[in-house]
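[#protein-structures] MJ: dropping Sterile alpha motif domain containing 13 here for a structure pass
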Amino acid sequence: MEDKANGSVDNKSPVENGQMPDPANWGVADVVNYFKATGFEEQATAFQDQEIDGKSLLLMTRNDVLTGLSIKLGPALKIYEYHVKPLQTQHLKSNAS
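AK: finished. structure tokens for Sterile alpha motif domain containing 13:
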């Protein structure tokens, strides 16, 4: 990932070096771009509307994703289980070492 002049991170691929990226320093646009890149183009706008940045993403609970973003249940479950939770786990592992 490359830092851009505006402070956002270039996130072309959701996986970097075989690992999930650490979103702790992402801005709102980075979070939106991550979900667009992973196939959730329509749902990505919910993260924009709620101003979810990387730190906020790492603090989200399952309930936050399912009810707080006004996303349909099916996509919300996939977003939490396959993206938010793994990003949180990866962040905890990388900061524990």
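MJ: nice. Residues 27-96 form a domain with the DNA polymerase; domain 1 fold (CATH 1.10.150).
AK: one more thing. Residues 1 and 11 are 6 Å apart (CA to CA).
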